[in-house]
Specification:
Strand order of the largest sheet: 8-3-5-4-9
Largest sheet: 5 strands, antiparallel
Strand content: 15-25%
Number of helices: 9
Shape: globular
Number of strands: 13
Length: 322
């Protein structure tokens, strides 16, 4: 039997995609299997409290950071120095600080992450959609000192003044400009398992991350019947592009590790929507999909399509209309 026909039986059971859902960076390939019954062992199961930072949660966080619109362009670090609050108190402090941030920059969106220092004290990293400015930095730093440690001058200095890092010789401050770069660095940053372990006696943890409403826009839907090419072929082409890019990235990482004399982890290829039996995400595939659609004939819908729901074409160029 030919290698290309070994999985023929499984392909017969694979329903074709019905539509694409486009975010600023990612594409979701949707296959309509209809309503699925819930397994019996999960029907009476109630959701418990969050106890750990799971891989699923990290994946959702990375996707939200990668598809934020407008993009996250600055970061603020919120720390504790002389106090060690429990989980409920730390979340109250964060909520109070976010209210100040919304008043200071009403148009700003945000994404925050909870982590723990080696001494077991929590701290927060907050990414904002507004750029760094000295006025905003001073105001938010003073607000965090007033909320978290009002009696600590050192805490106020750390969050409102520049300081010299003796290890690197660079000037640092609590608010920095930030380039998300596809959220790859954020994914690596979240892989620090030691900073996600909840210390003993910390109490209620709650969520490890959160975001403002509307940080990620609603997806733009492209139905299969609106394409002039079969949606299976489009899905296969874009999925192969995603897989090839992953291999290229792994090859570059392997060369860098060899030059530095460090071991390099082998790449674990995740199944893409091309081989998945369910709906699946294609990371950073929106530019490739739009470029592919540019080479196809104009879509079947033009001016009559509602803006923000589908992709329209003007002058032979495919554009996402919002």
């Amino acid at each position: 039997m030919s290698i290309s026909h070994r999985s023929g039986d499984s392909r017969k059971r694979l329903l074709p995609p019905t539509r694409f859902e486009l975010l600023p960076s990612d594409v979701r390939v949707v296959r309509d299997y209809g309503p699925q019954p819930q397994p019996e062992h999960l029907r009476d199961l109630r959701r418990g409290e969050v106890q750990m930072f799971s891989a699923k949660s990290a994946s959702r966080l990375t996707r939200m950071a990668r598809n934020a619109s407008p993009a996250l362009v600055s970061q603020f670090c919120l720390t504790y120095h002389q106090v060690a609050p429990d989980g409920a108190t730390a979340k109250k402090h964060l909520d109070a600080w976010l209210k100040v941030a919304r008043r200071a920059a009403p148009e700003a969106g945000y994404l925050w992450i909870l982590e723990f220092q080696t001494r077991g004290v929590p701290h927060f990293h907050v990414w904002l959609t507004v750029p760094y400015s000295e006025t905003l930095w001073k105001r938010l730093g003073a607000a965090w000192n007033r909320i978290a440690e009002p009696d600590s001058p050192q805490h106020l200095w750390w969050h409102t003044e520049e300081r010299l890092d003796v290890r690197t010789g660079k000037v640092q401050r609590s608010m920095l400009d930030w380039d998300m770069k596809g959220a790859g660095y954020l994914r690596k940053y979240m892989s620090k398992e030691a900073q996600k372990c909840v210390p003993d006696g910390f109490g209620w943890v709650g969520r490890f991350w959160g975001a403002s409403r509307g940080l990620v826009p609603d997806p733009v839907t492209l139905e299969a019947e609106d394409l002039t090419a079969p949606i299976e072929d489009v899905t296969r082409t874009v999925s192969k592009w995603v897989e090839a890019r992953r291999r290229r990235g792994a090859a570059v990482a392997r060369k860098i590790a060899e030059k530095r004399g460090k071991p390099c982890k082998s790449l674990k290829m995740r199944p893409t929507a091309r081989a998945s039996s369910m709906s699946g995400w294609l990371n950073n595939a929106t530019p490739a999909l739009l470029q592919l659609l540019d080479h196809l004939e104009p879509l079947k819908v033009h001016s009559e399509c509602p803006v923000g729901d589908v992709i329209c074409t003007r002058g032979g160029t495919t554009r996402v209309q919002r």
